[in-house]
Specification:
49% helix; mainly alpha; 3% strand; globular; 433 residues
């Protein structure tokens, strides 16, 4: 079996909490010789278009809970960490606290790693650039930040830190206009993460601390003095998911560490819970070198060496290199995902009788069709132009072969940073846009 996840970051084996939880689950439930870990960072390989994804022969399962259900069925319960918790109260706690993690702690991760502009630009976005190939390092981080904004709308915090965007000409113009608007007519903007952290008034500054307490207090009460959340020795699926979320709250070295400090100061037992889990489930610190081949590696399909503790604990396997075709596919997918009505789903109306409702046509509208055709043509033209240039550049004696890519203007300057003929991985070390 192959477990596909987002790549390592912040000394953790993945930058995503669901991926971290799934890695922890397989490490404790499935024999090591039955699975391999691949940091493919390609959600397109999953039927749910998300990672983690478990591939078992012709079967691919996406999502933490779906993977757990599949492993339970495949092993007839042998690989089920929750099989020992037959008490109805324990079962209810697993369901309730999994929901609590996703509704209370997940938004805090979004605020810390994505919504806070300072944390995002200095830590999160560069972390993606260490394992994403070109051009996905310019596409995926902003997309994940957009999703994070949607997850935090209910917190009544602005989705952007406007006080860190002073270089934006439009923002400067808005501020200049605000100067000439009478004070009685001005509206008070919504607070941002950064403005709250810089606010000296204790009432506003404690707002984020209250959110941290609301997320961590129930978990700390459930943990008590035990080693695991539900028992002293036996971990559950809840332990794995809690480890994934809490590790991403504590491990990243971000400039604004309100989330880490809030947990370490007020909920120290949860910090110890994470430290134990990191060592037992992931073998300590992980790095990008654990998951990806170095320049001296002979084959991208080979397994990593076993020099680091993480490589000895986790069954890493190098992912396939990303080529020009995969890069074009990623670009096209990103364009289509942002088209209007591209995610529209037609749901038939319910019927009061037993007559089956005929299937509704799901053909795209003329606007969508035209948009798809235009986007496809644009990507195809750009890909063909680049491929044609480098093809002729390889021909001996051809005039274009002696040309300089930098002579192509801004496009050429960008292309000089990448070795397209080498498989597309040479540019993975950029700053992520």
């Amino acid at each position: 079996m192959e477990l596909h996840v987002w790549g390592p970051a912040f000394t953790l084996p993945s930058i995503d909490p669901q991926c971290l939880a799934t890695i922890a689950y397989l490490k404790q439930a499935v024999p090591k010789d039955q699975w391999v870990l691949i940091a493919s960072s390609d959600p397109g390989s999953s039927p749910t278009k998300e990672l983690p994804a478990l591939r078992d022969g012709e079967v691919t399962v996406g999502g933490f809970e779906n993977i757990i259900d599949y492993l339970r069925q495949k092993s007839n319960g042998k690989w089920d960490l929750d099989s020992h918790f037959t008490n109805p109260q324990d079962r209810a706690d697993i369901t309730a606290f999994i929901s609590h993690l996703r509704t209370q702690l997940s938004p805090l991760l979004s605020l810390s790693l994505y919504i806070s502009t300072q944390n995002y630009t200095s830590t999160t976005r560069p972390a993606y650039s260490t394992f994403l190939p070109w051009p996905t390092q310019f596409i995926i981080p902003p997309h994940h930040r957009s999703l994070a904004k949607d997850r935090t709308q209910h917190l009544d915090l602005s989705s952007l830190d406007f006080d860190t965007l002073s270089s934006d000409p439009d923002q400067r113009n808005r501020r200049n206009l605000a100067d000439i608007i009478p004070a009685s007519l001005r509206t008070t903007p919504k607070p941002t993460v950064t403005s709250l952290l810089k606010e000296q008034q204790s009432g506003k500054r404690f707002r984020l601390a209250e959110l941290v307490d609301a997320a961590c207090e129930p978990l700390a009460q459930l943990l008590g003095k035990k080693k695991c959340l539900l028992s002293e020795k036996r971990p559950s699926s809840l332990d794995c998911l809690a480890l994934g979320y809490l590790a991403l709250a504590l491990k990243p070295d971000v400039p604004l560490m309100w989330l880490r400090e809030g947990i370490q100061v007020r909920w120290a037992p949860l910090s110890k819970f994470v430290e134990r889990g990191v060592e037992e489930c992931w073998g300590g610190k992980c790095s990008v070198d654990d998951a990806f081949p170095s320049s001296t590696t002979s084959s991208p399909d080979s397994a990593p060496s076993t020099q680091n503790p993480s490589q000895q604990t986790l069954p890493w396997r190098f992912p396939q290199m990303t080529g020009l075709h995969a890069a074009g596919t990623t670009l096209l997918t990103s364009v289509l995902d942002n088209l209007p009505f591209s995610n529209q789903t037609i749901i038939p109306s319910s019927s009061t009788n037993n007559t089956p409702t005929p299937a509704q046509p799901t053909h795209p509208s003329p606007l969508l069709s035209a948009s798809i055709i235009s986007a496809t043509a644009a990507v195809a033209a750009a890909t063909a132009a680049a491929a044609g240039y480098f093809f002729f550049a390889d021909l001996d004696g051809a005039g274009v072969g002696n040309g300089n890519v930098s002579e192509m203007g801004e496009a050429g300057a960008m292309l000089t940073a990448f070795d397209w003929r080498g498989g597309g991985w040479e540019g993975k070390g950029g700053d992520g846009g």
